[in-house]
Design goal:
Elements (H helix, E strand, L loop, with lengths): L24 E5 L11 H12 L5 E11 L2 E4 L15 H4 L9 H10 L5 E4 L6 H10 L7 E7 L4 H9 L2 H4 L3 E7 L21 H16 L2 H5 L6 H6 L7 H8 L7 E4 L3 E2 L3 E2 L2 E4 L1
Helix pairs in contact: 1-4, 5-10
Length: about 280
């Protein structure tokens, strides 16, 4: 799995040039896969956001849905659209988001890491943490999209620190996006309340507020050590895979970056769509 061999496709991007404007970095609360085909307040905001930020040369997604032993980056010419879910309408399974990859950029990005070896992967593709969001932002599917996996054997501090090694890509027009959910407890979803706007359990609302406050204050150490934030944090993050992408986003923050929040809503009691724009 993975190889150091590349085709000539996109070979002209062996070294992206630095831009005058620093590309922002995002954390997207992606929520249900149905957001990938629905025209709702969340997907509308993703579309609007794409028009407000500079057009990226490529998009690099750190998704909650690609966990691996070690770190990998997609390096194929055209990544497959992965339908990594079940029980949804056929319309969702029919979606094919045919954005190109960029093998040369994958190689360049892998070379930025000094603390770990990053494997070039030709087998994964784009999972729903990536394509359900990106297809709304860039529906023409002409901007290359890559994914970076999350090493499930490592802890929060590791992921936060690892993200910092990608900072130079922000200078080269690459949009780096963490995709997960800050509060994500599927076992406690109030399915009968999904149609009620902003219905949330007290602990979910409280933790969402705490997360935003700590992000605003730049208290990343507390966000890294989220398990020390009390029982509300443990209810909000029963497993860490949807939270880790936030740490990648925070690790990429520069000293002069502004912070804003969007899609700041609770869904089904125990999920938050709250998203962050840095820069």
């Amino acid at each position: 799995m993975g190889t150091k061999t590349f085709s000539a496709f996109n070979s002209f991007t062996n070294s992206l040039k630095e831009e005058e404007q620093l590309m922002p970095v995002l954390f997207i609360g992606h929520g249900s896969p149905m957001n990938g085909i629905e025209d709702n307040e969340f997907s509308q905001t993703w579309k609007k956001l794409a028009k407000e930020i500079p057009t990226p040369k490529a998009v690099l997604v750190v998704s909650a849905h690609w966990l691996s032993k070690g770190t990998r980056i997609t390096a194929m010419d055209f990544p497959n659209t992965i339908h990594d879910f079940g029980g949804f309408p056929q319309e969702l399974f029919d979606v094919q988001y045919k954005a190109p990859g960029n093998p040369a950029l994958a190689k360049e990005a892998a070379g930025l890491f000094t603390t770990t070896d990053v494997e070039l992967d030709h087998d994964w593709g784009l999972d729903h943490g990536a394509w359900t969001v990106v297809r709304h932002m860039y529906p023409d599917a002409v901007i290359p999209v890559l994914q970076l996996s999350i090493d499930y054997t490592q802890g929060p501090q590791y992921h936060y620190d690892l993200a910092k090694e990608l900072y130079s890509l922000r200078k080269k027009g690459v949009l780096i996006m963490g995709s997960g959910n800050m509060v994500h407890n599927l076992r406690m979803v109030a399915w009968n309340k999904l149609s009620e706007p902003e219905y949330g359990y007290d602990w979910a609302i409280q933790m969402n507020t705490t997360f935003k406050d700590l992000i605003r204050k730049g208290q990343h150490d507390k966000l890294i050590s989220y398990e020390s934030l009390g029982k509300e944090a443990l209810l909000s993050i029963p497993t860490p895979e949807h939270y880790w992408p936030l740490l990648y986003t925070l690790g990429l923050k520069g000293g002069k970056d502004d912070i804003s929040f969007f899609n700041d809503k609770v869904v089904g009691g125990s999920l938050t769509m709250t998203s962050v724009k840095i820069g």
